[in-house]
Specification:
about 220 residues, alpha/beta, Rossmann fold, 2 domains, six-stranded parallel beta sheet, 6 strands, about 55% helix, globular
Length: about 220
C-alpha cells in the first residue's frame, strides 16, 4: 500500500482546522496527523509528528505563519509549507514565500484542488494559485522599483550564471511561463527547463518560486 501524505493543519480558527481536516480525511492518500492553533504549536507538532506538508495560516497570535515558516526553514525541516491566505494578504504572501514556503492557496479553495496541491508540493513541486499570482507579482514589481543596487553577496552568486541563465532568471522574477520565456529568447521549452534546472542548482534553490524571489530580493530587473 502506498504511504499516505502526512499533513499538519495550522490555523487559529478551530472551525477552519476542523473543516479542512474533514475534507482531507476523505482522501485515500492523505492523512491529517495533527493540528495547531499558532506558530509555536506548529513548531512543536512538526518536531513530534514529522509531517510531509503543512497548511499554514499567516495571521495568528504569537508566532505567525511567516515567522513559523522562517524557523522551519532555518531548521532544514523537510516539511513543505503551503501558505493559506485571502486576497488581502499580498505583503504577507510575499514574505511567506521568501521565508521558504513552497506555495500558497486561498482559504476557500475547492477540496479537490486542495488535495491536488498537497500532492504536488509533497512531490517536491512549487504551487502558485493563478487567482492571486498577479497580485504577488505586483508586490514583486513594487519592491523591485524601490530595491537598492545589487549587493556584493548577490552579485557574487549571480556571477555563477551564464548570460542566458541570468536572462531567464529575470523573466522568472516577472512571472513568465516556460513558453513565454522560450518565445522571448527564441529557444525551445526543453532548453528553458534545462536552464532553469541549472539556475536552481547553481544558486542552491528548491524551485522556480524561490528563484523568482531570489531575483527580486537581489534587485534584478527585466532587460
Amino acid at each position: 500500500m502506498t504511504q499516505k501524505i502526512r499533513v499538519l493543519i495550522v490555523d487559529d480558527q478551530e472551525l477552519v482546522r476542523t473543516g479542512i481536516q474533514m475534507l482531507l480525511n476523505r482522501k485515500a492518500d492523505i492523512e491529517v496527523v495533527g493540528c495547531a492553533g499558532d506558530g509555536a504549536g506548529a513548531l512543536r507538532q512538526v518536531a513530534a509528528l514529522d509531517p510531509d506538508v503543512i497548511l499554514m495560516d499567516i495571521r495568528m497570535p504569537g508566532i505567525d505563519g511567516v515567522e513559523a515558516t522562517q524557523r522551519l526553514t532555518a531548521q532544514d525541516s523537510r516539511a513543505a509549507v503551503i501558505i493559506l491566505t485571502t486576497f488581502h494578504d499580498d505583503e504577507n504572501i510575499f514574505n511567506g514565500l521568501a521565508a521558504g514556503a513552497r506555495g500558497y492557496l486561498l482559504k476557500d479553495v475547492d477540496h479537490r484542488a486542495l488535495a491536488e496541491a498537497i500532492r504536488k508540493v509533497a512531490a517536491g513541486n512549487a504551487l502558485l494559485d493563478p487567482q492571486i499570482t498577479a497580485q504577488v507579482l505586483q508586490e514583486f514589481n513594487r519592491r523591485e522599483r524601490t530595491a537598492p543596487p545589487l549587493s556584493p553577496h548577490y552579485a557574487e552568486r549571480l556571477a555563477l550564471l551564464t548570460e542566458r541563465e541570468q536572462a531567464i532568471l529575470r523573466l522568472l522574477a516577472h512571472g513568465s511561463t516556460n513558453q513565454e520565456i522560450g518565445g522571448q529568447l527564441t529557444i525551445s521549452i526543453g532548453t528553458v527547463k534545462n536552464h532553469i534546472s541549472s539556475i536552481l542548482s547553481k544558486l542552491d534553490l528548491r524551485d522556480r518560486t524561490q528563484a523568482a524571489l531570489w531575483a527580486q530580493q537581489a534587485g534584478l530587473r527585466a532587460d
